[in-house]
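Input sequence (210 aa), recorded before submission:
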Amino acid sequence: GMRSVGVVAAAVLACLAGRCGGLVPGGAWHVGRATYSVRGEALAAYPVSSSSSDCGRRDVLVRWAPLVPVAVAPGLAWAAEEEAAIDPESAFLQVRQALAEDGAVSRLEAMVSARDWEAILAYTKEVDLSFRKVTVKKAAESLDNAGKDKAMEIRSKLTFDLIAVNKAARPKYRSGPGLDAGMKVLRDDIDELLSLGPPATATGSSSSSR
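Predicted structure, token format:
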């Protein structure tokens, strides 16, 4: 699998750097005190004398060097494919869903309206973890260049918006007007984020009416 090929590549690179002892017959190699096979199975330590090190390294180059691009290139392509797989429409739809009746932001708004202080203290942390750190990040990463930079900036602002709402619910700073003001700034920043993405579709329209 990819893990085995990755280990092969690591062994090849180690040998190129002069840190590999040599090969074990049957497609295994010796690195330091450990010996591994292509299948990733640990084998008994294979002592290699210093006189055989150069030969071992040459063997590695002959047998395994062709696998280096196979081990490295697929990993890079896989990472690029994962990054490219983020669809802006679906990513921003998830942001809009947080504003829907049962969405995370709407639930927080309901708590603010009800002055449910203890619930606000707990739920602002949940909104930060699930909405800001995951949903908003995904939406930001679906954009390109300046749009992505701006979205990441808004994501950082949402941190302080949630802190402001949380602080206004704490016993020492408890304030209804402070809650309302913090919630308004939070919603304004989310609306700004949405303006950077694709427009809402008929099936994914924003329910951000105040």
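Checked by second reader. Helices lie at 2-16, 53-64, 67-84, 88-99, 104-114, 117-141, 145-169, 176-196.
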